[in-house]
Amino acid sequence: MNKFSxxxxxxxxxxxxxxxxxxxxxxxxxxxxxxxTINEIQSIAQxxxxxxxxxxxxxxxxxxxxxxxxxxxxxxxxxxxxxxxxYKKIIDKTRKESKV
Length: 100
Hints:
The chain is mainly α. It has 6 helices and no strands.
């Protein structure tokens, strides 16, 4: 489960369920365009790009230059890479798929 399950926040559970039913990049695209603002999508994309660069061993200063992300954002993403599993799982999956 996820950290929101304990709170029984029905709206969060509904969102997670909806996301789990997306079957293609086109479906993800149209859903996110309706759900989020352009700035929110760009912010999420930036964090994911930071995660990719960190997983490649790129240093903070280089990541700042390449992405414009703050050191606070880079640090937060780094903590998620170390202590979490979400970024790692999706990075591994996407990298395996791109090699096939």
